[in-house]
């Protein structure tokens, strides 16, 4: 027989674990680079840019277009990696909390 109180307790546990997992995402960091390391972007698991390093050799007017392209590439790569690590961390911290229920889609929760 289905135990509603048990299920409600499990849902509260999942909510608490999800919050803890989301709070920990700010501490996950990734660094990505483009242009053989001339531009480096650092992002966290919340997909926020933390820092950007640009090699001094790129800081002249003639290379402005190339610099823009390298910055975009490094930031996009860092954001992709940060999102991936964030999803992995969320899955790791919430693994096994909910039973495998057919039709239950956790993708909308960021898992």
TrEMBL record:
Record keyword Cytoplasm present: yes
Q: Where is it localised?
A: Cytoplasm, Nucleoid
Alphabetical keyword list: Cytoplasm, DNA-binding
Q: Which SUPFAM superfamilies match?
A: YbaB-like
UniProt keyword tRNA processing, yes or no: no
- Residue stretches of biased makeup (Basic and acidic residues): 82-94
Please name the PANTHER family in this protein's record.
Answer: NUCLEOID-ASSOCIATED PROTEIN YBAB
Outline the subunit composition. Answer: Homodimer.
What name does the UniProt record give this protein? Nucleoid-associated protein AHMF7616_01583
Its source organism is Adhaeribacter pallidiroseus
């Amino acid at each position: 027989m289905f135990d509603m109180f048990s299920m409600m307790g499990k849902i509260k546990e999942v909510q608490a674990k999800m919050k803890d997992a989301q709070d920990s995402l700010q501490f996950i960091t990734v660094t990505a680079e483009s242009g053989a390391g001339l531009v480096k972007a650092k992002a966290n698991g919340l997909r926020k840019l933390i820092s950007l390093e640009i090699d001094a050799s790129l800081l002249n007017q003639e290379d402005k277009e190339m610099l823009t392209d390298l910055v975009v590439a490094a930031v996009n790569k860092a954001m992709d990696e940060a999102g991936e690590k964030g999803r992995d961390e969320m899955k790791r911290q919430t693994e096994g909390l909910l039973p495998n229920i057919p039709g239950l889609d956790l993708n909308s929760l960021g898992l």
